[in-house]
Each structure stands twice: as structure tokens, then as C-alpha cells.
Prior knowledge:
This protein is α+β, with helices and mostly antiparallel strands. The protein contains 6 helices and 11 strands. It is 44% helix and 23% strand. Strand 5 (110-116) and strand 6 form a beta hairpin. Helix 1 (36-68) packs antiparallel against helix 2.
Amino acid sequence: MKKIYQEKVFVFPYDSYRFAGQATDERILYITREHKFFLFIKMFFVLLIAAAIFLATYVFSLAFKNIFAFDYPSFLLPLILILIVALIIIGFWWVYSVWQKSLAILTNQRLTKIIYTTPFNRYNQSLPLEMIVDTSCSNQGFFGGIAHSLLKIDTLTARSSASSSGVATNDVSRVNKKYFYLENIQYCEDLQQYLNKILSVLSHSPERLSSFRPFVPNLKAEARAKFLQEHYKVGEEGVEVKKEQNKIEEQAQLSQEEKPVS
């Protein structure tokens, strides 16, 4: 079983991945994380902070020399440079670790987020599919607008039907209008339409969710159908991983070839 937090890229099919709290009958339909564009922005801010510290130190050294008419100790500047380099390395590691470990997961039962606030601390948020009222995609802020224009990155919003009692309700007066966000993800609009299909299946034929096809990003129509046909066998009983079937067929063929000829 793959360690889900250490994966740099999530490869379809997602059956080899497991996350903490996943039920035995719960299937992962899609895994993603915040787009790398925002990772690079955070790393850029680390560099800005380091540059600001270096500039402040340089200005302070000039002021110290002018006021007291002598230089500060010669070892101080190299020491500060070493500390700034260490700050950059630790900052990059910190930002990357938080980014890599924070995940957004869609299963056949819920939307869930695993959010790391530090490389060591995390919290989870989940929203059952039956409590989703509607969905939307949007972008906010300056960087969000740039990301949407260049890379089609948006934030997926799912509005919950949970009332103050925690039970789903259609009574508008009792709905708290709680929102569940998957922030700064690519293929947001495609994922939104896919989620809407899941909600439709859930309301009309919930038994079909156990075999509902996973979300395949960046593929549409004929390309997606061909990809699924190559990786999955679709029958009356639902969806089975075709790779497993090919493995069984190959083993059977090898066993036939190894039989002695009489």
C-alpha cells in the first residue's frame, strides 16, 4: 500500500492508496492537492522574508558604523548570512512539507480534506455526499485571478445541508449554509460536473456509487472512454480493475506454457 502523503503525483487508478479513517467499503474516486503555482508563491515569500532580513541587517550595519564610528565585529556578517541561508532552507522544507501532506480526497461516500498546519500537526474535515446541496467553482484575490487565467485553477465549494442538529434537511430556515472548500485545485470545473453526476446518482440509484467510475482529469469524451476501457473492465456487476484481470490471465497463460507436453 502506497504512503499517500509521500506521493508527488497521484496515478490513476487510485485503489492502491489509503488514508487514515478510510472505511473498508470506501473507494477513492479522486485525490488532489493545492496546485504547485501556490507552492511557488509561498516559496517566493520565504525568499522575500530572507531578503528583507538581509537588507535590514545591512542598513543596521551602516547606521551602526555612522553612529558609533567603528565597524561591528567582522564575524557578525558571515554569521547572519549563514542564518539567512538556514532560514531559506528551513522555510522551503516547511512550506513544501505542509503543501505535500495536505490533501483533498473525493470518495464514493464523502468529500474530505487532510490539512497540515505544520509539518507535524494536522486536522481533518469531511462532508458526507448526502449532505451536499449544491456546488460551485470560483477564484478570489489577485493571485487566484492569475491562476485561473493561466492554469484554470479554482476553488471548489460544496454547500452543506447540515442543520444546527447536524442532520441533513431541506428546510431552508434550518440550514446553516456551511461551506466546504477544496482550494486552488486544477480541473475544478470538470470535478464540479463530476461531483454533480455523483449527487444525481446518489439521489436516484445510490447502489451504483459502489462501482461508479473514478474521476480522470484532463481527459474528456472519447479519450476518457478509451482510457477507462484500457484500465477497467465494465460488466453487470460494476467496475473491476483491468490490470488485475490481465495479471490473472498472464499467470494462467504461464501455467499453461509450463505444463509438460505428454
